[in-house]
Write a structure and sequence with these properties.
Elements (H helix, E strand, L loop, with lengths): L3 E8 L9 H9 L4 E3 L6 E11 L3 H12 L6 E8 L6 E3 L1 E2 L26 E2 L17 E3 L6 H13 L10 E8 L6 H16 L7 E7 L7 E6 L9 E2 L2 E3 L6 H13 L3 E14 L2 E12 L1 E3 L7 E7 L12 H9 L12 E3 L10
Parallel strand pairs: 1-3, 1-4, 4-9, 5-8, 10-15, 16-18
Antiparallel strand pairs: 2-3, 5-9, 6-7, 10-13, 11-12, 11-17, 14-15
Length: about 350
């Protein structure tokens, strides 16, 4: 049985704290030699590398630098302290913003700015399918990791691991905010983080088919969606267009190819925004929403698996969605402002019979 290699990080104390539960939990996980498979319960070996990060710009970038320097892990788990949280909070989205209410440990206090200006970044994993009853404590799923060092760290790590390889999908990575030890003690937080780590290494009961879907932004905060044709699965439902990642493809290559085939448009793939897992029959699909830049014109006559296209925005609440694409619709409506109007030169041909309110 192959040994899984993982990186776990926590933080040093900050903001007047004399201790930081995240650093203590990370050190505890460093003693692990095995985990239990979260779905089959079989034991498997692991090696855990621990890094307690400094609460400053260098600490926020340290994991990303390790990845860029060629260090390889099967999973990365970031841990941080959430002073206001009553229960652990699993973060699935790193915001492209910095709004530090207090200085970091080197006195840096950045306000009202972005991390890199490229937009929010989402995890290549869907913890919403994990059965909550197997955890030792309740937890929340969150799409807002804040605007301090925790969020900055998560952002830089996702950016580093989303550099595409022709043969390797991104490493699974999450950020977990832990409550202060007065609310959930170190032992209980360690038990919780250990279970998260097991799910990071085995996020679905069976290996999924990976699918990419395109987020195609337009003017005034609206984005393009397509209606499945009558002959297709989920006929009549609306979706973010895309398709399966083929063997030997990177996720960037896959979304470029799929949108060229389905909509006859050329796109530049930027980064993942989020993931949902869906089971159809006996097959599990992990669908990854990809931020795309595009320009040009889409015409109904070029469509292959769809019968219509339309622009939708936050006011579109009654549409019949394919699979879990309604969750993607809600996600993109809440993205940071810098991702709005990303493709102002895009349009839809008049012959495509758009904006009928279907």
């Amino acid at each position: 049985m192959s040994v899984k290699s993982v990186l776990v990080t926590g933080f040093e104390p900050f903001g007047g704290h004399v201790a930081n539960v995240s650093g203590e939990v990370a050190k505890g996980l460093g003693l692990l030699e095995a985990l239990h498979h979260p779905w089959s319960h079989e034991q498997f070996p692991v090696t855990v590398t621990v890094d307690v990060l400094s609460v400053d710009a260098e600490g926020a970038r340290r994991t990303a630098k390790r990845l860029k320097n060629g260090e390889l892990y099967d999973a990365v788990l970031h841990l941080g302290l959430c002073e206001r949280c009553e229960v652990p909070q699993i973060e699935v989205l790193a915001r492209d913003r910095l709004e530090m209410r207090i200085p970091d440990n080197l006195g840096r206090q950045v306000r009202n700015t972005t991390v890199d200006g490229g937009g929010d970044r989402g995890a290549w994993i869907d913890p919403s399918i994990w059965p909550k009853e197997v955890f030792n404590t309740p937890f929340h799923l969150s799409q807002d990791a804040g605007s301090f060092i925790c969020n900055e760290t998560f952002f830089h790590t996702l950016k580093a691991m989303h550099q595409p390889s022709p043969t390797v999908l991104p490493t699974t990575c999450l950020f977990v905010h832990l409550p202060d030890a007065t609310r959930l003690d170190v032992e209980a937080s360690t038990t919780f983080a250990e279970k998260v780590l097991a799910f990071l290494l085995h996020p679905t009961p069976e290996p999924p088919v990976h699918v990419v879907a395109g987020y195609l932004p337009g003017r005034k905060g609206r984005h393009l969606v397509a209606k499945r044709a009558p002959r297709e699965a989920d006929a009549g439902c609306w979706e973010f267009p895309g398709g399966k990642i083929e063997s030997g493809e990177s996720w960037k290559e896959a979304i470029v190819r799929e949108l060229r085939e389905e909509l006859a448009i050329e796109v530049t793939a930027r980064h993942p925004l989020g993931t949902v897992v869906r089971t159809v029959g006996s097959t599990t699909f992990a669908v990854h929403l990809i931020m795309c830049e595009w320009s040009g014109e889409v015409d109904l006559q070029t469509l292959r698996v769809h019968e219509a296209l339309t622009w939708v925005g936050a006011d579109d609440v009654d549409r019949r969605w394919s699979g879990r694409d309604g969750e993607f619709h809600a996600l993109v409506n809440g993205l940071s402002h810098n991702q709005v109007d990303a493709s102002p030169s895009s349009s839809i041909a008049r012959s495509s019979l758009m904006d009928r309110g279907t």
